[in-house]
Structures are given as structure tokens and as C-alpha cells.
């Protein structure tokens, strides 16, 4: 059975909390791109405390995609 992306967005991604989290992740990426330039292309920006709204530079680090996405918590 194929995924119903429209339903997923309506039930999860469109919630206020998820919109704020997504905006925080996008903001973190902009901060790190300003700091490191294009050297972050192909990598992820990791929030050390796992809170996407905490964009202090001491909480952000650039990691490889596989390393960041395999991190459990």
C-alpha cells in the first residue's frame, strides 16, 4: 500500500509544533551555512541537545548524514 503523503501532512507535518520545529532546523542550517559556507553541502546540521528550536552556536555541529541520522536517543 503506497504512502498517503497528503494525509501525513494533514495529520502531522501541518501541526503548529512541527512547523516550528521545521523552521528551527531550517534556521540552524542557515546559521551554519553563514559560518562555514558551502563546506556543509551534503552534510547535516546536528542539534547536540536534540531540540530543533535551540539554535545557539554552541548547540550546533556539522556531521555526516549517516552519522547524524543513525544517532539514537
Care to describe what's here?
The chain is of the alpha+beta class and about 70 residues long. The protein is built from three helices and two strands; from the N terminus they run H-H-E-E-H. It is globular and about 40 Å long. The N and C termini lie far apart (about 30 Å). The relative contact order is 0.14.
Order of helices and strands: HHEEH
Largest sheet: 2 strands, antiparallel
Strand content: 5-15%
Which regions contain 5 or more consecutive residues with pLDDT less than 50? Answer: none
What gross morphology would you assign? Answer: globular
Helix content: 40-55%
Oligomeric state, counting identical vs distinct chains: single chain
Mean pLDDT: 95
> Which strand order spans the largest sheet, edge to edge or round the barrel?
1-2
Mind telling me the C-alpha Rg? 14 Å
Number of helices: 3
Helix/strand/pairing category: alpha+beta
Measured between the Cα atoms of the first and last residue, the distance is: 30 Å
Number of strands: 2
